[in-house]
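Hallway conversation turned thread

IA: we were arguing at lunch whether anyone had actually written out Probable dual-specificity RNA methyltransferase RlmN end to end. Turns out nobody had. So, for the record, here is the sequence (368 residues) and right after it the structure tokens. Reply here if something looks off.
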Amino acid sequence: MTSLPLVFDAPRRALPPRHLADLDPAERRAAVGELGLPGFRADQLARHYFGRFTADVEQMTDLPAAARDALRPLLPQLVTPVLEQACDDGTTRKTLWKGHDGTRAESVLMGYPDRATVCVSSQAGCGMACPFCATGQGGLERNMSTGEIVEQVRQAAAAARDGALGTPARLSNVVFMGMGEPLANYKRVVAAVRRITSPAPDGLGISARGVTVSTVGLVPAIDKLAAEGLPVTLAVSLHTPDDELRDTLVPVNNRWKVDEVLDAARRYATTTGRRVSIEYALIRDVNDHAWRADLLGKKLAQRIGKHRVHVNLIPLNPTPGSEWDASPRPVQDEFVRRVQAAGVACTVRDTRGREIAAACGQLAATGA
């Protein structure tokens, strides 16, 4: 196996038109002023969009018709659903979105007894080139705008509220684990997190503790995120504790080695007070060896701290034609036992959506 080239900068393709969700409260008032309207109209518009999940100005009947027409340019349609699929008795719903330029991205809305979670994309495609990931196989098309990211969350919140998961539910969790490397689109992702977590009418009002931002290990960006004052959970897609294998499985490891990534995770946990999640896709005969479980537990305990880290073991969701496959259940159970023996919490992620191509990037790759 050979390492693949990394793409940190997205191709220079035009982002979609400016949207209300791209703007902070001061920018919204300025934008409304440019349209010849008083500043309080910005607050009214935000209450509809963030508080009521409404993006159609015609439904904003407390606004005069002339104001609705004037404000329409601040709510352009950024993402259009192309395909929607459901499984798990309707509690898992995957949406394939099309952007203004035809780029595709995916989100997954999942209902649980105690919460509703949406997994969103931050890029159209991904430049990290992890060979077992469907998105990584397709390469990077472009970054998504802040508005496009927030729109995935707003529409998921509206769908959950309206009973799309079977019964009405409040969206409580947002995970940046869809298509793309969130920290490679740093500025827009952080802005999206602020819109998602700010109280209405400035944002969607979801607790920052319900937001998880994943990364393959962009060390400088991890340190930058720690200083943002956003107590979100950091999830590090590690997938193996040794540099020799990780150089191939996660090619960014050629730039920042395992120990550097774990040290950055420790700094994040220390700064934010938030426990770090270690994502580990278990792949048959590749990274599921007993000695790797032992090494993983040892490194995490030493470099981050037993009580500041949690391992999220992910049974691999194979992609069509891939050489990669999930580990057998006995191997998975032994891996969990060995990590836990090091004093590190380790659980297996609930597997959702195998029958609807829910491994990230699979749906977009179908060309639907």
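OS: looked through it. The radius of gyration is 21 Å.
IA: good, adding that to the notes. Residues 146-161 form the longest helix (16 residues).
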